[in-house]
Amino acid sequence: MALLQIEGGTPLQGHVRVSGAKNVVTKLLVASLLSNKKCRFTSVPDIGDVRVTVELCREIGALIEWDREEGVLETITPELKTSYIPQRFSGANRIPILMLGALLGRTNGEVIVPTVGGCDIGKRPVDFHVEALQKMGATIEHRRMLKESAWFAHAHDGLHGTVITLPYPSVGATENCLLAGSTATGTTVIKNAAMEPEVVELILFLQKMGVPVTIESDRTIRLLGTNRFYEAEHKIIPDRMEAASWATAAIATKGRIFVEGAEHGRMISFINKIRQIGGGFDIKEHGIEFFYTGSLQGGLHLETDVHPGFMTDWQQPFVVLLTQTQGLSIVHETVYENRFGYTDILREMGGDLTLFRHCLGGSECRFALKHFAHSLAVKGVTPLYGKEIVIPDLRAGFAYLLAALVASGKSKLSGLHFLERGYEKLDAKLEALGASFSREEERVPALEEALVN
User: What angle do CA 409, 295, 254 make, to 5 degrees?
Assistant: First the structure.
């Protein structure tokens, strides 16, 4: 089992290049299954979620060549070998549910996908996906088998375009509607759609493949289904989550990092909050330099929201940063109801954090009066202390890594596979920034004994 031993308290200094966006390349790989034409992707990161998605696509019938060193991936799916997604993919990530939209238009048979996996951050609005696809003509049933469960779906008469109004601008539901609408008969209209940069990248890729798509100013997307596709090539945009992670690391450790690939236009709400607490940044041609300028001021009110609001995935590392700001700050999570589970460990490390079940925001959110601990008060400056930590999921993982880099003393992090689902070449980047750490393999006596016997 791999472990990171971290000696905290060293300011991170230097240059880091952001890898391709996890939440773009995985979705575009699914979109490539819509046709039998070759697709080529560049700037593909070699991370856990991409590896799992590649394996999933190969299971279905995709022929994939991936130069991991160069970040170039080519794929073509001449025909589907199967439309059954095995249960081993159920907890890997959130990609399997998107197979419904991608495969229903390519087969008249039954599509079977396991239930959603990924980080434990709250209920996934899978009902939005199901209701939208049913409205397009799919028959979908959830079946439970012992400890396993799956979605069984078919569209024997094909999918047809319709008007879909999402109850909430869910990224995943919007993507599933886009995939299904690409092969549906007629026009699909998606109202109250998510407009995250990752969704826009999917739209651009579908257009390259041959799907006519338009975006309107009121969160409405229109697309005309087609059965004529083309070869397509797409460069994966830099991961804005990784960019924000290194930005918070620079300021929280009192250092200076040039984050190559950080894009101003996709990080406006994040950069506003950096400015409000007194953090430094300098927008350059090929990225953004983030740096510590002196005492950081709290008194911040932060609400997560759908794009162009403050991204929910930025929240965890930013909370660690807030423990190093002077005064009381409030964070109101409005996207997922269970996104503060990671704060228990931060309290054990010395952070002064208090959860509330009320909406501590400008207005009530959809979790109001539902007894979810979705607001947080952070009081700083509080010194953090090293601790042994088992990483439970991806986004909590970087928050714990950052806390360990800030803390005095040594920390030991295990569960690194969760962190490496989304962060490419993590050790090399930490080393380039001057972090004091080592990776080691921990012996598991019971396992060693079992192997000997």
Answer: 45
